Amino acid sequence: MIFCLSAGQTIPNQTGKGVFAAPDYKALYFELFRASEQAARLLHEAQQRAEEQVMAEDEPPLRLEEPLRPHAREGTPRKP
User: Fold this and answer.
1) Phi, psi of 72 (to 5 degrees)
2) Distance of alpha carbon 6 from alpha carbon 66, whole angstroms
3) Alpha helix segments (H runs only) across 9-79
4) C-alpha distances in Å from residue 71, one per residue of 27, 66, 74, 76
5) Which of 9, 17, 23, 51 could form a disulfide with 5 if both were Cys (CB 3.0 to 4.6 A apart)?
6) pTM across the whole model
């Protein structure tokens, strides 16, 4: 006789006390895998929405009026 029990159910034995069946690791693995896939998909969708929102704002690019100068060494005055 073969028992097909789900995880956590007891298997009856001759003493009348049940013995716990081993957890169904395959089912637990697939549940975890589906949850991680869903989390990755949600993060990807959120990133896409954020990028679309930033692109939709269409702010003008940052422009510098004069070129950047390297910092002068200590004790050396800057030239105007």
Assistant:
1) -75, 150
2) 72
3) 25-57
4) 62, 15, 9, 10
5) 9
6) 0.45
